[in-house]
What we know:
single chain, 166 residues, mainly alpha
Amino acid sequence: MRRQFALSPTPTSSFAAPELSTRDLSAGAYLCAWSLRQWVQSAHYGRCTVCDLRRRFEEADCQSAATPCHHFMTLVARGARRRIEIRPPGERKLARDELALVRLVALSGQGHRPRFTARLARGLVHEEQRRDVVAVAGEFGSELIGAGLTLSGWPELQLVGVREAC
């Protein structure tokens, strides 16, 4: 049985999470989200996924990220627990699943504990694939970070303000 990604928005949970604009993402996080989307679109149309990613990665001076991105998405596609929502490359809002994947790449690439990052992968891939998905996400994230790109931009993880007591 072949697993496929959704190319159009579909509800993936019972509660509505606030949508995040791609404009809120850092350059590295935007490139990561774009590459996930482009990979799905390329695979859907039967094109060479790495070939379609390579030019954009070259422009960002991180050509070596194309292969780990391909491996990451292949593992996610093969090990998916459910239908994962990935929107088309031009869409301005991130799907909840896309945000989870970008966070997984960011945290794994920064060397966060595999036990913590495996929790992010729990709702996306089967247990047997979790370790491999997290490891390859780390390779992908490390390539982006190594090229000087930051992976950030989700406001709920940032400090909003501190009020000092009088």
